[in-house]
Amino acid sequence: MVRLALVASLVALISGCAGNTATTDRQDAAVSALSAAEWSQVQQEKLQVVLDGTPYVLTEVSGGWLIRIAEKDTFNPHRPELLLPAALGNIGQITRHLAQDPDVAVMVVGIATGQYKLKSKEQVSHERAQSVASIFRLNRVPGHRLKTLGVSHGEDIDGRLGVALLVVPEQELHHRVSKDHTQVVAMLTRR
């Protein structure tokens, strides 16, 4: 008899918890959607402060922010994969800021659409991404919060760009990396 009462109360408890799970899931989804909007707003304010006084442009994209960095005055015209010393301060300032925020992840997108004497566009774009990513690594941004991508093909890519930093929540970075890169390339259109 005691066993029957114990089993009945256990079943009632489990069924009660199962009924609350759907409600909890809906509440969690609403909170995460609100959190995404709040995250975006907070990041916009922080990034605008960090980018103040730099020639870089901040653009809102789906689920994050894109920092557009022009090729001119950032990369060496004779060795197009190398950063100019004048650009190191501004990029270092951005990386120090992003390194301090554990909820932020960055995809460094190297862009090369021009003609280069000694290297292919593909090689230059990957090396540009790696050279900027190395500054993030020097500021101790862990690998799970940092990804690189080289882009050299695309009719609509803004040819003035040398690199772009896609700033997203950490969990979103892994989602974007696992998907097709055409979404990232679409963000690089001329504005």
From TrEMBL:
Signal peptide, first to last residue: 1-20
Keyword Hydrolase: no
Keyword tags: Signal
Keyword Calcium: no
Transmembrane segments: none
Matching InterPro entries: OmpA-like_sf
Protein name: Outer membrane protein OmpA-like peptidoglycan-associated protein
Species per Swiss-Prot/TrEMBL record: Thiopseudomonas denitrificans
